[in-house]
Fold:
Amino acid sequence: MDGRVASLLGHESSENIFFAYGNDQRSTLMSKDEGITWYNVPRDFYLDTRSKLTFIPSKNIPMQVTNLAVSEPHASYQFGNWGGL
Structure:
């Protein structure tokens, strides 16, 4: 995906348009080729498109605190053979 894309906003299914926020946290981007090429679009164009019944918003996935950011693993972490018997 283009490095300018920060987060996906949604998909307008009747015209196959994807919308995203840019990395600058101000620009609104649009792609008509499934995310290969992104173009800046006016925010009003996104807002108008978002009001259509065929617009599917992206799902918000909250950040979760994990034990992976510490030097020692959590006490309940177990070493094992992933996928093995």
